[in-house]
Amino acid sequence: MKKILVMLVMASMIVSLVACGNEKNTNENKRINVVATIFPEYDWVKSVVGDSKNIKTTLLVDKGVDFHSYQPTADDVLKISTCDVFIYVGGESDEWVEDALKEAENKDIKIINLMEVLGNKVREEKAVEGMQEEHEEHEVERENDEHVWLSLKNAKLFVNIISETLQEVDENNKETYENNAEKYIEKLDKLDKEYTQTVQNSKKDTVLFGDRFPFRYLMDDYGIKYYAAFNGCSAETEASFETISFLAKKCDELELKVILKETGSNDEIAKTIRENTKTKDQKILSMNAMQNVTFKDITVGVNYLSLMSENRDTLEKALK
Questions:
Q1: CA–CA separation, 257 vs 221, rounded Å?
Q2: DSSP state of 20
Q3: What per-residue string of b and e applies to 65-74 under the rule 16 or more CB within 10 Å gives b?
Q4: What is d(CA 100, CA 80) in angstroms, rounded to the nearest whole number?
Q5: Cα-Cα end-to-end distance for the chain
Q6: Each residue of 83-139: pLDDT tens digit?
């Protein structure tokens, strides 16, 4: 997924880092800079940091840009090059990171790769029955599913690692980061139990997405079955007749009252599926994969826990 643009950015950075990087470091105060590529990482850091003024946290993908299509600017690469802690997912969508880190001015950057943290808990993308494949005529090479943040259980691991890393780079505030992480993980535990209770009390055990499906980690956590038009990283925007027909028949067969889609995407595929069911009365609801959160959202109080709580509410309706 590396683009020519990335290589041009890297070339320009070789000059700009030497020219202004050192000057910037000497003039600014000694706050610790943390750069996170996506919103969940950013929100976890902010929750662990709390009221501490020692940490400056930067979110790279901050204008609602889809995580899968994001390309770094020269300014983004400079932020990474001079930061103290860098957090990224580690999947196919941010392969550009490797080149950015090669040019890093700060050779002592603490790096947190979420997929490396998960290790053998990382899952491959899975094609379930009826899911439309890209390039169906060819054998599809499976990539690892990079939507690792959409699991409360994974989030607990990530928050612990973030806390431990911040304690290393800012020992004077070690107790603050440790305590904040413990309190935040308690909230994750509480919401995790609410999800479990929701699924246990539900009549259905299957959901259906008329859209991309980035929620495998979440569904697997609670044993929820699923059908979808495309996998989580698919670039497809139009579903085939076979895909629509299959999903509509599944709605009928399972008597599903809700067709799900991803927040931020249109509902045309979901509507087409509904129009091909017998009852044509399914509600179309959205679940948020946190791939297009903006700073405007953040300023009005949107956070990881609130979005995962909203997803639980939606899931409850879909499983009735």
A1: 23
A2: I
A3: eebbebebeb
A4: 7
A5: 40
A6: 999 999 999 888 889 888 887 888 899 999 999 999 999 998 877 887 876 444 444
Residue 211 backbone phi and psi in degrees, to 5: -175, -175
DSSP structure class, residue 129:
T
**Secondary structure letter of residue 37 according to DSSP:** S
- How far is Cα 206 from Cα 224, in angstroms, rounded to an integer? 6
User: What would the DSSP string read from start to end of 61-111?
Assistant: S-BS--GGG----HHHHHHHHH-SEEEE--SGGGTHHHHHHHT-S-TT-EE
pLDDT in tens, 203-218: 999 999 999 999 999 9
Q: Could you list the beta-strand ranges (E) of the chain.
A: 32-36, 55-59, 85-88, 110-113, 206-213, 225-231, 258-262, 283-287
Contact present, 270 and 261 (Cβ < 8 Å): yes
User: Which stretches does DSSP call E strand in 127-257?
Assistant: 206-213, 225-231
Element (H, E) at 172: none
Task: For residue 235, name the pLDDT band (cuts at 50, 70, 90).
Answer: low
pLDDT at 10 over 70: no
Distance CA 260, CA 242 (A): 19
Q: How many residues are given for the chain?
A: 320
132-188 per-position pLDDT tens digit: 764 444 445 668 999 999 999 999 999 999 999 999 999 999 999 999 999 999 999
56, containing H or E segment = strand 55-59
Name residue 56's beta-bridge partners. Answer: 33
Cα separation of 316 and 198, whole Å? 6
pTM of the entire predicted model: 0.87
Secondary structure element (H or E) that encloses residue 154, with its range: helix 152-169
Query: What kind and span of H or E run contains 277?
Result: none
Dihedral sign for Cα atoms in the order 16, 19, 20, 25: positive
Asked if residues 200 and 315 have their Cβ atoms less than 8 Å apart, the reply is no
